[in-house]
Amino acid sequence: MLRDAVWRALETVLDPELDEPITDLDFVESYTVSCSGAASVRLRLPTFFCAPNFSFLMVADAHDAVSQVPGVTRVDVTLTGHHAADEINSGVAAQAGFVSSFSGEATAELDELRRVFLAKAALAGQDRVARPLVDAGASPEQLARLTLGEVPDSVDLRRLTQRREALGLPADDKAPLLISADGTPVTTAEVPLHLRRARLTRVGIETNGEYCKGLLAVRYATAAP
């Protein structure tokens, strides 16, 4: 049961750039939980050169998520097969932060980076939710008036709501479906351009995701005995 809880915790950890759980991306190479509650997680990435900042965030978020599982007494999260694995693993274990972990190289923590990519995910999410409505013939005026509470429940809607909540943007049932980056409603005249931007952002994220999945599959299929 504790092992299942650890997996559920890992399911909440996202690749910030791809906006997908690391569990769905097959980034969790292995994980164990001892009888005493000591959890050990090994993460892997598509390439040896994946960006250290995103890699650090995933390892740190996995450590934080598993640490919050009731019954877990100790957490060890390690990244394997990465050029900066030593700096990332030791930094996360010491909870030293990104700047201290990459002393002399990093100049800022990663909060702003996380926010930027979360905002992209929230924009892409508007396309995921609105696209079926557009295809069904919804007009710009109807879309501009539509609230989250009026949209049929779906995985994409819940995903969008979560991203908005994380950003502090309007996310209740009365919130407009289409909003700008600062949370202001999109006007009828702005709807076509807003949806094009949302569509491009979504395509970019999803294309990167498929590319990374392909690289991972090739890398570890090749390495397998």
- Number of DSSP helical runs: 8
* Uncertain stretches: none
- Average per-residue pLDDT, rounded, comes to 96
Strand order of the largest sheet: 3-4-5
Q: What global shape is seen?
A: elongated
How many beta strands in the DSSP annotation? 5
Give the termini distance in whole angstroms.
Answer: 31 Å
What structural class do helix, strand and pairing data support? Answer: mainly alpha
Largest pleated sheet: 3 strands, mixed
H-E string: HEEEEHEHHHHHH
Helix content: 40-55%
Radius of gyration: 20 Å
Strand content: 5-15%
Task: Give the tags.
elongated, 10% strand, 225 residues, two-stranded antiparallel sheet, three-stranded mixed beta sheet, mainly alpha, 5 strands
Can you walk me through this structure?
- By secondary structure, the protein is mainly alpha-helical.
- 52% of the residues lie in helices and 10% in strands.
- The chain is built from eight helices and five strands.
- The protein has helices spanning 2-10, 52-67, 85-93, 97-101, 111-135, 140-145, 155-167, 191-223; strands at residues 14-15, 20-21, 28-33, 38-43, 74-79.
- It has a three-stranded mixed sheet with strand order 3-4-5. It has a two-stranded antiparallel ribbon with strand order 1-2.
- A hairpin with a 4-residue loop joins β3 and β4.
- 32% of the residues are buried.
- The mean pLDDT is 96.
